[in-house]
Write a structure and sequence with these properties.
The structure is a single chain. By secondary structure, the chain is mostly helical. The protein has two domains: about 55 residues; about 210 residues, Orthogonal Bundle (MetI-like fold), CATH 1.10.3720.10. Helix 7 runs antiparallel to helix 9. The protein starts with a helix and ends with a helix. One of its GO terms (cellular component) is plasma membrane. It is found in: Cell membrane.
Length: about 280
């Protein structure tokens, strides 16, 4: 019970500190903005550890963070192999292909009202298909290696990016387009100098959504067939062996990779859309 009460006391103290920092004059400083979520995450791990140990929860049901950390340290080569197979070979190529194809398709749709009326409804239909339904089909089409996982990722990220890009290309108002026309700007000049920059906030919204979808698609696709490596394969086999610490280790690696990927896209967005009011408000 010492673990339980100690973790609850630490949680209460950290919550009070977070509230005090958030309400202080230092709340807008960069260090405090990074400290508050870090402190919250550490206290959450301590609370998890204390509850599991204090309530004597079986590690088969929920292992403590210390056991998960020990498993990560002991199986780093295995986790790295799974990371390379799932993230670097499956998620990233599928993300790049799907997002690139979505941007090019959005430009084609913008040029053709027929495609806008015909392709977008089909896109909404395909986007509503469950990944557990299309993943087995794509695994049968493209094989059990990373190519089928990349194909699943392409399907999952294509339409969110497409919809956001189409909305972004339509974001400029009539006066701005007329001004470009008075300067004798052609379609491609107006696209590059006016409409693509205006579409960047919409595009990055889609790209950030696609970062998480890419990881989910690559991992779930491995449940339906993969070589003897990969995060999804490892999770499915470890659950059957009741090695829940390994399952949580894979989940932790996937969460860290997804957060880093999202943060990288957000950093690029901040550098390219510094002029947008949403970015200026964060300074």
């Amino acid at each position: 019970m010492i673990w339980l009460w100690g973790s609850l006391a630490l949680w209460a103290a950290a919550t009070a500190l977070n509230v005090a920092l958030a309400g202080s004059s230092l709340a807008r400083s960069r260090m405090v903005r990074l400290l508050i979520p870090a402190l919250f995450g550490v206290t959450l791990l301590v609370l998890w550890e204390g509850l599991v140990r204090g309530l004597e929860v079986s590690p088969v049901i929920l292992p403590p963070p210390s056991a998960i950390g020990a498993r990560i340290a002991a199986d780093l080569p295995l986790l790295w192999t799974d990371f390379v197979q799932t993230i670097l070979k499956g998620a990233l190529p599928g993300y790049a292909i799907g997002c690139g194809a979505a941007i090019l398709t959005a430009i084609l749709i913008d040029r053709s009202p027929f495609l806008q009326r015909g392709l977008l409804p089909v896109g909404n239909f395909v986007a509503a298909l469950p990944v557990v339904g299309i993943a087995p089909i794509l695994v049968m089409w493209f094989g059990f290696d990373w190519q089928s996982k990349a194909a699943v990722v392409v399907v999952m990220v294509f339409f969110p990016v497409l919809v956001n890009m189409v909305a972004g290309l339509a974001a400029t108002d009539r006066m701005q387009r007329d001004l470009m026309a008075t300067w004798s700007a052609g379609y491609w000049q107006a696209l590059i100098k006016l409409r693509l920059p205006a579409a960047l906030p919409f595009l990055f919204n889609g790209l950030k959504i696609a970062t998480t979808l890419a990881l989910i698609g690559a991992i779930v696709a491995e449940f339906f067939g993969s070589p003897t490596r990969g995060m999804g394969f490892r999770i499915s086999t470890a659950v059957g062996q009741l090695a829940l610490d390994l399952v949580w280790a894979e989940i932790a690696v996937a969460a860290l990779a997804g957060s880093a990927f999202y943060g990288l896209v957000a950093l690029v967005e901040r550098g390219l859309t510094f002029w947008h009011p949403s970015q200026r408000a964060r300074v």
